[in-house]
Design brief:
18 strands; mainly beta; 194 residues; 8-stranded mixed sheet
């Protein structure tokens, strides 16, 4: 099941869900271009001129719950990122991620960044990339004060505005960091992406 919300509102989730499902199927057949691999914390490497960074307004994000994979105390989900604009844009590095209530209040700490090698990911219109989201089961997180989240706030790398993805798993209002996210990678995520 794909859970998806475009922009900063839950409205239109069903309508955009169909768009994303079609985009994922189209993107699965063709890999998006990726350029020189480099450290996640160094400057963005050279990219094709004329391609702008992806902004939240360009993107739709969702959690591919049907592609989850678990380990002791953690579940990994592909956080899918689709270019819904009419122009190619690029992503590079880690997105910012945090769980929020329906009113938009952040629950607990923002996701930490898992190590990984960043690469420029060019997203053509309709193209999808992903970052692996690690969710520490809050029932086993010491010091967690459980609370119900409604969405994930997702900030594209090097941006300040956010898009939202439906998220109805228990979260921590206070306590430990219970989310972690990897660098953006080309193509849709799968169980094998962890």
């Amino acid at each position: 099941m794909i859970k998806y919300v475009r922009g900063t509102s839950m409205r239109g989730a069903r309508r955009w869900g169909a768009v994303c499902a079609a985009a994922v199927l189209a993107a699965a057949g063709a890999s998006t271009a990726a350029a020189a691999a480099t450290s996640a914390h160094s400057a963005t490497p050279a990219r094709a001129s004329g391609i702008a960074k992806c902004t939240a307004a360009d993107l739709g994000v969702w959690v591919a719950a049907d592609q989850s994979d678990g380990t002791a105390g953690s579940i990994y989900y592909p956080l899918e990122i689709t270019n819904l604009s009419s122009s190619t844009c690029y992503l590079y590095g880690h997105p910012g991620v945090s769980a929020v209530t329906g009113a938009g209040h952040q629950l607990g700490q923002s996701a930490r960044w898992n190590p990984g090698t960043a690469r420029v990911v060019n997203l053509a219109p309709g193209g999808t990339a992903h970052a692996m989201l690690q969710y520490v089961t809050v029932q086993v997180a010491p010091g967690c004060s459980p609370a119900n989240a409604a969405e994930l706030k997702v900030i594209p790398p090097d941006q300040t505005s956010s898009a939202s993805a439906f998220w109805d798993l228990p979260s921590c209002s206070t306590g430990p960091v219970y989310l972690a996210v990897g660098v953006v990678q080309p193509g849709p995520g799968t169980r094998d992406s962890t």
